[in-house]
Write a structure and sequence with these properties.
Layout: E1 4-6, E2 9-12, H1 15-28, H2 38-56, H3 63-83, E3 85-86, H4 89-114, H5 123-133, H6 150-157, H7 161-186, E4 187-188, E5 193-194, E6 197-199, E7 209-211, H8 223-229, E8 239-247, H9 249-258, H10 261-268, H11 273-281, H12 290-304, H13 309-316, H14 320-333, H15 335-351, E9 353-355, E10 361-363, H16 372-408, E11 413-418, E12 422-428, H17 432-445, E13 454-460, H18 463-467
Helix pairs in contact: 1-2, 1-3, 2-3, 3-16, 4-7, 6-7, 9-15, 9-16, 11-12, 12-13, 12-14, 13-14, 14-15, 16-17
The chain binds a DNA duplex (10 and 15 nucleotides) through helix 5, helix 7, strand 7, helix 12 and helix 13.
Length: 468
DNA sequence: ACAATGGTCC
DNA sequence: ACTCGGACCATTGTA
């Protein structure tokens, strides 16, 4: 028996859990502890968190709350990492062969059309082929030359068929190297599962990050991505994957933080929030087209990031002027949002920091910088942090609470992944119903406000099936 | 080893 | 002129 005090709490009391801590220490702090130095490793993990927390929880009433949260989460994460995610390697390799075959075909076609062979993955060689050999017009520049990113290539592909093939080739190569081959290498041969490492304070806002492999940027938007996700499976035939994600959490938080009446009502009406904003932005139109809804969705997200008209226009494909008008209209329809941001920035300039609903802080020393670019960037960081950070606090708190409730109720369910506003569980089939009730109650219950958080739950044999 | 470029996620 | 918040990773090419 070991008694390890982490923070102010006694968190572990069995050898198994201490080993979990040690695994966590080794994985996340690049420190390899021998058996007789486990106490030292634990202290190191503790102090590492403690040091990072100095920046996010300096002396005030909220400090202990954040420290407690992170120290409890440390144990939860160590168990998630050690347990890992079951993975269907055979299925992944099948997908890999199919992609490889298509990539080969594309390369043949591209070389045929271009009239010579070259390395399509090389930015430098691609620039030379497109702009010098073929004489296509270059539109955007990078620091060192003429850009060949997706935006530029999409425009060119309207006129030149070969560019469309190059775009497809690039997408498939990305999928193949980063995801298919990357995930294949990440399968631990001993456990046959994938064990990521979470950086608990990986982002300045309080969010976590995931590395080796990063399970927080697995593709999600097309059929091939769905197939890759379907390789993440339940750990037995009598088990299921359960996905629980917060619906529109950042906009709901904005509604609560700003107390804007129209934004609150938009949620209380139960209507699709992007459609609701579209109707407010384009009130003079009888029908809302998909383009209008896309614009509204862009504005809704953009406002959370402290958007500029220029940035929004890049995202939605409209002109900067039209994008700026939409942003102005957004603030006119949701006036308290602008007031909230004005007050937030004023406060940040005065105190030097912004904070989440839990009191987690981000210090912004450049909020009064003489350089306008730096100052405005800092203002956008200030606007984004309370929303992104509160989201992080809330889901972290839910993770700690869920872990403890599973234990308390003897539920055969394991938390296996976190993707910012989504939790994934590996659950015994017979426990699925009870687990779903607990998951929803806890996730929705950890934060209460006028506009409540809504959790959507899906169940399936794999990660994709559970989300569908 | 490292910078630059590009791409994936929330 | 103007590059929207927060991350991680692969590849190429230069050092």
């Amino acid at each position: 028996m070991y008694d390890i005090e982490i923070g102010s709490r006694l968190l572990s009391d069995t050898p198994e859990r201490v080993d979990d801590f040690r695994a966590y220490c080794e994985r996340s702090h690049r420190y390899r502890a021998s058996d007789d130095t486990r106490t030292f490793a634990l202290e190191k993990a503790y102090w590492s968190l403690h040091g990072a927390l100095e920046f996010q929880a300096s002396e005030d009433d909220s400090r202990q709350r954040i420290v407690d949260l992170e120290m409890h989460l440390l144990a939860v994460l160590s168990r998630m990492e050690a347990y890992g995610v079951a993975f269907d390697r055979g299925k992944l390799r099948q997908i890999g062969s199919e992609i490889r075959e298509r990539v080969r075909t594309l390369e043949t076609e591209i070389f045929e059309l271009v009239g010579e062979q070259f390395n399509i993955n090389s930015t430098k060689q691609l620039q030379h082929i497109l702009y010098d050999r073929l004489g296509f017009p270059a539109s955007k520049k990078t620091k060192t030359g003429r850009s060949v990113d997706t935006e530029v290539l999409s425009e060119l592909s309207k006129h030149y068929a070969v560019v469309g093939l190059i775009l497809e080739h690039r997408t498939l190569r990305k999928l193949l190297t980063t995801y298919v081959e990357g995930l294949d290498k990440s399968v631990n041969p001993k456990t046959t599962r994938i064990h990521t490492t979470y950086r608990q304070l990986g982002a300045a806002t309080g969010r976590m990050s995931s590395e080796s492999p990063n399970l927080q940027n697995i593709p999600a938007w097309d059929e091939l991505s769905d197939r890759i996700k379907s390789c993440f499976i339940a750990s037995g035939h009598d088990r299921r994957i359960m996905v629980a994600d917060y619906s529109q959490v950042e906009l709901r938080l904005l509604a609560n933080l700003s107390e804007d009446e129209a934004l609150c009502r938009a949620f209380e009406g139960g209507e699709d929030i992007h459609m609701r904003t579209a109707k407010l932005l384009f009130w003079e139109h009888i029908t809302i087209t998909p383009d209008m809804r896309r614009m509204a969705k862009g504005v809704n997200f953009g406002v959370i990031y402290g958007i500029t008209g220029y940035g929004l226009s890049k995202m939605t494909g409209t002109t900067p002027a039209e994008a700026s008008r939409s942003i102005e209209t957004f603030y006119a329809r949701y006036p308290r949002v602008r007031e909230y941001y004005d007050a937030l920035l004023e406060n940040a300039r005065r105190t030097g920091y912004v904070a989440t609903v839990f009191g987690r802080r981000r210090y912004l020393p450049t909020i009064r910088d003489a350089n306008r670019m730096i100052r405005e960037r800092t203002e956008r960081e200030a606007i984004n942090m309370p929303i992104q950070g509160s989201n992080a606090d809330i889901i972290k708190y839910a993770m700690v609470e869920l872990s403890s409730q599973f234990h308390e109720h003897g539920i055969d369910a394991r938390m296996i992944m976190q993707v910012h506003d989504e939790l994934v569980f590996d659950v015994a089939s017979q426990a699925v119903e009870r687990t779903a009730v607990i998951v929803r109650d806890v996730m929705e219950g950890v934060y209460r406000a006028r506009i409540p958080l809504i959790v959507e739950i899906g169940i399936g044999e794999d990660w994709h099936a559970a989300k569908a």
